[in-house]
Amino acid sequence: MTPFAELALVLAIFVLTPITLFRVIREPLTIGSARLLLTLYPVAALSALGALALDQGLFSAVIACGWLIFTGVAFGYALARALPRSTMRLEESCIDAGLAYLAVGGVWFVAWRSGATFAGFEAHTALLTAIHFHYAGFVSLVLCGFAAREFRARDDLAWRMLRPAAIAVVVGPALVAIGIASSSVLEAIAAIVLACGVAVFAVVVLARVVPLRRTRVSRALLGISAIAAIAAMVLAVMYAVGGLLGSPTISVEAMERTHGVINALGYGLCGALAWLLEPPRAAMLDRRPPFSSLASGLRVGADFFERRALIATNSAVRGLVDDLAQFNSVEFEAGRVAQPIRAFYEDTESFDLRLFPRWRGAARRFARRYAGFSGRLEQVHYALSAAEGAGIESRIVALDPHVDGRAGVRGWVRWYRGSGRAIYVAAYATHRDSRRAYMNIAFPLPGGNLASILRPQNHGADGIVLTSHTDPARPGDEGVYFASALVPIRLPINETIFVWTLVDASAPRDLVARGGPTTVAVARHDAWLLGMHILTLDYTIDEASALRSVTTGA
């Protein structure tokens, strides 16, 4: 029975993998691991061929490591795609999981070629496990991801059906493998869950995707793939139920000849060819926001930009932006923002701030420790009391875009008037995607920078809100990331900044009450970690010329 299984693995390595990867990597030059995948594949395929040509043993396993390295790079590519993503995209998550499972398949391929017992399993079981992760793990998930791409902008029954099905196909391969290693009951249940998830995708493809294909050949191939998937999953459920009840209805040999062949040739090959001929209409390119290249040492401090010679001496700036209108989009209109607020962003040098920090909930227990750490670092260092935050100095400087890597970048440095200790040192820039413009802020840290990408919206009568929270209807670049030389990582952090004039009825009364005779606007900055509200920073925005002429001690 081994030749059938070996041929299925050969098909996966030499045909299905290059076809599906070609369609996944739409812009290979945007991510280094994508370029490496394209370069490595011919060498990895030759390595796999050499391992298959040799008898099982140590030498065959060593040669097979070329394929393992390739699948490891595929895992790295999955991380490079997933970690910067600002929102959970069902279709791309399926593809990312498939790329990750391919690496597991590579491990089991080497284990099979060694001919030795691996993790308590004999060589033939290792072969079947390698096939499982190449097909159910990699090929099937990528095909499901392609199908889900067709529904990205829709909110109908088909899309709602795909959501639970996607969870099933993502976790199913791992649960089946765990069941094989631990419990036949878990294995059977996991196989049923996985089969049902794939079957739902196949039904949706037949009903909603196949009719939309432009060419007859593409429609035929995708239709055959969907029908084959349903047939293969019916056999899988029958086999799993038989095993669960203790009365097998189909033998392992029969499953290999029927389920295996239908799965490999019908579902996998026809599906891959269909998407190769006509790609998903809503494919998401591997695009990422522009990140600053700034990083710090163990201390940032208010003189960071001077120490690093980052200040552009041939230009002068006074505001965080030159013109708030550069953020105009369908969801933001600068003309609706009150003049004092607009002036604050365009002429920041003319204003002073007073800070009133409030740590929230469980975060209060760690506030003092955090303040000790951030105080030594002199970055993102928020006061523990309103008294310390009452006097804040700040300055705006133009920065060298060649060092930062972003255009039009300027630094905003804020420090406590009494201690001279930096509150934060940030490099501000803007960028656009196809929908909107973003405020792109980088806080230098050891090893990289904390990047906060905020989307502006009108708020209240004439206020503004800047938020990193993803817009579920129109997801974009917004988010908080750690940007390093390796890969940007989307962090489980969010922040929202509201700015109001004093006469705006939506402004919190307690915040307005903190204002003085020179106050022109107030702001509230809320931060969340893992969905928990951890910090509120209240600000009053005062005319600098007036405020600096008096002693402040609020």
Automatic annotation (TrEMBL):
Pfam families assigned to the protein according to its UniProt record, in alphabetical order: YndJ
Cross-referenced InterPro entries: YndJ-like (IPR025450)
Membrane spanning stretches: 6-24, 36-54, 60-80, 92-111, 131-149, 161-182, 188-209, 221-241
Annotated keywords: Membrane, Transmembrane, Transmembrane helix
First and last residue of the signal peptide: none
Protein name: YndJ family transporter
